[in-house]
Specification:
The chain is mainly alpha-helical. It has 2 domains: 32-126, Winged helix-like DNA-binding domain superfamily/Winged helix DNA-binding domain (Arc Repressor Mutant, subunit A, Orthogonal Bundle), CATH 1.10.10.10; 127-161. 75% of the residues lie in helices and 6% in strands. The protein has helices at 5-13, 15-34, 41-53, 58-65, 69-81, 102-126, 128-160; strands at residues 56-57, 85-88, 97-100. The protein has a 3-stranded antiparallel sheet with strand order 1-3-2.
Length: 161
């Protein structure tokens, strides 16, 4: 099926399409590298954030990793079933907090050198200059998206008031 020129141009100019295309492409590199450790890049990310913020609440993890709470809840449930994270008590009974289990610590330790190798290869392929610009620009994209989300929330609140 061929896209007509107008639709093709729309797709190639679409920020979301291009960001997701780049993300899918790079995710394949990291997923392949992490496969021997039995983790996907998304799981590796969540485990790292839980480890860094431990004990970590869902809101904290979601904000730090910029993951929506629904997706994060599903990911944490899978990691909990795999016995890589566990819930711990919280002063606020409404809040679910997580820590790595010993199995999660081992999984992270097995995955770290694999991730390091993938990261080094991607950095080598991109080059230091492009990587620096890319990371700076991606931070700007995340900031812009957060600003737009806050503006939408403010508008919605005004409509509801």
């Amino acid at each position: 099926m061929r896209l007509n020129a107008k639709r093709r141009d729309d797709a190639t100019r679409c920020v979301c399409f291009n960001l997701r295309k780049a993300t899918r492409s790079i995710t394949h590199v990291y997923d392949a590298a992490l496969r021997p450790a039995g983790l996907r890049s998304t799981q590796f990310t969540v485990l790292n954030v839980v480890h860094a913020l431990s004990p970590a609440g869902i809101t904290q993890i979601a904000q730090h990793a910029v993951i929506d709470r629904t997706t994060l809840t599903r990911s944490l449930a899978l990691l909990e079933r795999a016995e890589l994270v566990r819930r711990v008590a919280s002063a606020d009974a409404r809040e679910r907090r997580y820590v790595l289990t010993p199995g999660g610590e081992r999984a992270l330790a097995r995955a770290r050198p694999l991730w390091d190798a993938a990261q080094a290869r991607v950095v080598e392929l991109l080059g230091a200059g492009l990587l620096r610009r890319l990371l700076r620009d991606l931070d700007a994209v995340v900031h812009t998206a957060h600003t737009a989300k806050a503006e939408r929330a403010l508008i919605a609140a005004r409509r509801g008031a």
